[in-house]
Structure formats: structure tokens, C-alpha cells
């Protein structure tokens, strides 16, 4: 399917992906839910024959006549639990990798996005072997019972609170897990950068899908001087994107559900609303909003926003900004905007986050060559080959030759110093050159 196949820019009320009362611009839906999934699938199909081959490894002197390799085996039965914010992308991308690795899969779509849940339950059995792939439609109680079963691997995307439940259930069976749990992604804006470009790129990343994106910039860190430059530029960017009244714009999405709407609306009490702030509960509309005078202790800074709210926290210097970033839980990504490569590199080197993106937002997600995953906020990584590897047991294999038994006999008792010397000579890994730790 392509844009010419019937996808047009505009609200898709009642869309399969987002539910009857949750419109999303078709451009955003096609880009995030269709195009990126097609890229993932095509990259996998293009490279799978190479990925799945035995990987032949280095040998020592003792094993020169032997076969040393890594075999790529499937784990077995995989459970994939998908979230509501990108309900197609975030079940289909891990599913592609799980199938490519040879696993059987049970998919549990989010019960929040009812239309997607129904679509997946009806469509998937039409295309995949029902003996190997199944869809479970379930709420919290049923999912809890589902987790009592033993799976060979569990892949979950969602909130940290539910992630802890998943991990506890997996621990009972010693089941390996991948947990993608989000986090508050900082966005440092230095004093030397193109303010208009920064404003457009940050506004696009923050307000794409009404902010319901786990890798959106969650808050800006900048000096007071840069904040004063950014405010009019952000206001101009929002107007450029969505017009003077974003509620009437066909290019601005709505919040996925009533529960999510009410949670996000309470966050508007943090700091002071400088741009936006309007809400409409019936439409689940929250305007593109910028908050200033925000303190690190405010509610909006204590949880993942997943809504169209952009707090600005002031930091007097880059060192202060880095310190604030490092005192908080490590999220999925850190964003930096600067015209100075030294600033970019310093933030990269002195922060530890799942990923890094300089002078843009979200665009790292378009690259199948980069792994996706966090540290504190996640366990494991995926996307393209990394997804294949996630769902693959890398099995170490050695096929020894039955010849030269006299050489093998060096390892047998009775032991002697001469035997030990020969074994060390044949199997020891030698140091080559020097290693300098910077």
C-alpha cells in the first residue's frame, strides 16, 4: 500500500488503528504504522538468508581441523504484548523478527485500541498458520492468567508498572524478556544553534501523534536566554504546522482514550502555560502546549507525558544540564541541538542513555540499521537484525575431528608439566599490541 492507494492527509475518525473517537492524521498513521513496518519487513526479507546462516568463528591451534560455529535457533513460543500508542507498529515489528527467527508467536494487542485489536484478531489468522500463530484479545484479568503459562520468550512494550508485573511473571519460569518501557527523554538546546530549525524539529517530534510517542522529546533543557528565543520560535512553528486554531487542523491528532486524556490534563498544572493549554474532553483534544517555569520536582517531570505538552526547564550551563540528565532515570534517548560539535560530543560522552540523536527528533527511528532500546527504562533491543537476534538463541557449536587423537591425548591424565606447556601453547590467546584506556 502507498499514499496513492487511498491514504490522504486528514483526520481518520474511526480508523482501524486508533478507535472510533481517536483521529490521527493519515500522513502520520501511514508514516509510522505502515511505511516503517514495510521497511522493517523488506530489510528482513532482503537479509534473512544471511542472518540465519551458521556463523563460523575463529579457532585456536588445537581446533584447526574442527568446525567452530554459532547456530541460530528459535527460542520456541514467544508472547508479544503490544501497547496502544502505535498499536500496529509495536506489535508488527517484533512479530516480523520473531517469525524470521523461526518462533511460534502469541500476540496480545492492547485492549485500549479496540479497532486494532479486532483487526489483528480477524486478519492475522487469514495470513499465518493458525497452528503456529495466535491472537489473544484480553483485558487485565485475562492477561494476568495468560502470563501464568510458560513461554520461551516474552516481548512487552508499555509502562514500567506493567513491565514489573511482566518480569515477575516471567521470573517464575525463568523466561527471558525484552521490556520496552519508555522514559523521559531530555532535549538539551545549547545557546549556539539555529533557533527556528530547533523549534520546528522539536515541535514536530513532540506533537507528532499528539505527543503519544515513547521517543518524543519529553522536556527541553536550556538557558534562560535560549528559552526567550525559543518561545516565539515555538509559537511560530506550532502556527505553521497547525494554524491559529490547532483544534480545527486536520494534521493534529487526538488523545487515544478518556483515561489518558484525564491523566495528561492534570499535568497542565505544572509550571505555567506559555503556549496552548486548551482542552476539549468530548473530542479528547489537548492543544499543543509549552510549559515554562517548570521545576524538576513538578508532576509533569515525574512521569512519561505521552501527550502534547512540552515543559521547558532552565539550566544555566551545559554542565548543569548534563548533571540534571544524569541524576534522573536513564530513558530511551537523549536529544541535543547545537551548532558546536564539541557540545554535541560532550553530551554524548557524559550521558548514558538508550540512544542519542543530534539536531533532530524521531528520525533515528527511521533507520533499520540502528538498534532500539533503553537502559533503566528497558531490557534488550530490537529493530531489523537486532529483532532477529533478540528472538534467536545463538547456539555455540563445535564439531571435532576424530583424527589426531595423539594431539587430543595431551589433555588426558596422567598430567605432566610438559603436557600443560603444550596445551597452553596450542590454546592460549596471545595479547597483540597495546590497549589504551582513554
General description of the model:
This protein is of the alpha/beta class and 438 residues long. The protein has two domains: 191 residues, Aldehyde Dehydrogenase, Chain A, domain 1; 186 residues, Aldehyde Dehydrogenase, Chain A, domain 2, CATH 3.40.309.10. The protein is 35% helix and 17% strand. The chain has 13 helices and 18 strands. Helix 1 packs parallel to helix 2. The longest helix has 26 residues. The chain is globular, with a radius of gyration of 26 Å.
List the helices and strands and how they pair.
Elements: H1 26-51, E1 55-56, E2 67-74, E3 77-81, H2 89-100, E4 104-108, H3 114-127, E5 133-135, H4 140-146, E6 153-157, H5 160-172, E7 177-180, E8 186-189, H6 195-207, E9 219-222, H7 224-242, H8 258-266, E10 272-275, E11 279-280, E12 285-286, E13 289-292, E14 309-314, H9 318-326, E15 334-337, H10 341-350, E16 356-358, E17 378-379, H11 385-390, E18 392-399, H12 405-408, H13 417-427
Parallel strand pairs: 3-4, 3-6, 4-5, 6-7, 8-9, 8-15, 9-14, 13-14, 15-16
Antiparallel strand pairs: 1-2, 2-18, 7-17, 10-13, 11-12
Helix pairs in contact: 1-2, 6-7
User: How many angstroms separate the termini?
Assistant: 50 Å
The major beta sheet can be summarized as: 7 strands, mixed
**Structure classification:** alpha/beta
CATH superfamily of the largest domain: Aldehyde Dehydrogenase, Chain A, domain 1
Overall pLDDT confidence = 91
Radius of gyration, in angstroms, nearest whole number: 26 Å
**CATH architecture name of the largest domain:** 3-Layer(aba) Sandwich
Amino acid at each position: 500500500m502507498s499514499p496513492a492507494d487511498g491514504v490522504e492527509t486528514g483526520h481518520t475518525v474511526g480508523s482501524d488503528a486508533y478507535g472510533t473517537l481517536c483521529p490521527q492524521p493519515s500522513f502520520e498513521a501511514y508514516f509510522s504504522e505502515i511505511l516503517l513496518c514495510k521497511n522493517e519487513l523488506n530489510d528482513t526479507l532482503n537479509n534473512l538468508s544471511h542472518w540465519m546462516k551458521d556463523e563460523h568463528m575463529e579457532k585456536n591451534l588445537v581446533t584447526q581441523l574442527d568446525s567452530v560455529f554459532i547456530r541460530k535457533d528459535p527460542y520456541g513460543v514467544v508472547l508479544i504484548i503490544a501497547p496502544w500508542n502505535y498499536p500496529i507498529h509495536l506489535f508488527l515489528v517484533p512479530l516480523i523478527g520473531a517469525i524470521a527467527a523461526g518462533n511460534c508467536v502469541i500476540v496480545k494487542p492492547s485492549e485500549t485500541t479496540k479497532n486494532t485489536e479486532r483487526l489483528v484478531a480477524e486478519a492475522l489468522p487469514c495470513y499465518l498458520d493458525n497452528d503456529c500463530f495466535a491472537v489473544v484479545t484480553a483485558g487485565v484479568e485475562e492477561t494476568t492468567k495468560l502470563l501464568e503459562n510458560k513461554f520461551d520468550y516474552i516481548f512487552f512494550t508499555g509502562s514500567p508498572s506493567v513491565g514489573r508485573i511482566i518480569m515477575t511473571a516471567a521470573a517464575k519460569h525463568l523466561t527471558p524478556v525484552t521490556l520496552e518501557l519508555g522514559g523521559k527523554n531530555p532535549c538539551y538546546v545549547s545557546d549556539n544553534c539555529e533557533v527556528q530549525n530547533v523549534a520546528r524539529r522539536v515541535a514536530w517530534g513532540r506533537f507528532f501523534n499528539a505527543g503519544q510517542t515513547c521517543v518524543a522529546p519529553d522536556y527541553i533543557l536550556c538557558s534562560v536566554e535560549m528559552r526567550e528565543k525559543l518561545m516565539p520560535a515555538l509559537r511560530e512553528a506550532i502556527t505553521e504546522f497547525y494554524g491559529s486554531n490547532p483544534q480545527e487542523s486536520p494534521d493534529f491528532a487526538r488523545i487515544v482514550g478518556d483515561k489518558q486524556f484525564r491523566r495528561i490534563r492534570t499535568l497542565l498544572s505544572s509550571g505555567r502555560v506559555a503556549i496552548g493549554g486548551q482542552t476539549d474532553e468530548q473530542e479528547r483534544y489537548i492543544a499543543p502546549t509549552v510549559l515554562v517555569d517548570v521545576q524538576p520536582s513538578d508532576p509533569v517531570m515525574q512521569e512519561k507525558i505521552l501527550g502534547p505538552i512540552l515543559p521547558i526547564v532552565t539550566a544555566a550551563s551545559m554542565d548543569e544540564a548534563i548533571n540534571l540528565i544524569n541524576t534522573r532515570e536513564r530513558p530511551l534517548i537523549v536529544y541535543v541541538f547545537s551548532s558546536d560539535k564539541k557540545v554535541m560530543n560532550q553530551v554524548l560522552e557524559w550521558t548514558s542513555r538508550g540512544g542519542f540523536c543530534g539536531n533532530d527528533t524521531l528520525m533515528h527511528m527511521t533507520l533499520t540499521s540502528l538498534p532500539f532500546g533503553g537502559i533503566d527504562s528497558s531490557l534488550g533491543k530490537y529493530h531489523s537484525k537486532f529483532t532477529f537476534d533478540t528472538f534467536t538463541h545463538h547456539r555455540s557449536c563445535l564439531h571435532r575431528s576424530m583424527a589426531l587423537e595423539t594431539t587430543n591425548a595431551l589433555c588426558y591424565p596422567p598430567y605432566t608439566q610438559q603436557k600443560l606447556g603444550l596445551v597452553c601453547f596450542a590454546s592460549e590467546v596471545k595479547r597483540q599490541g597495546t590497549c589504551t584506556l582513554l
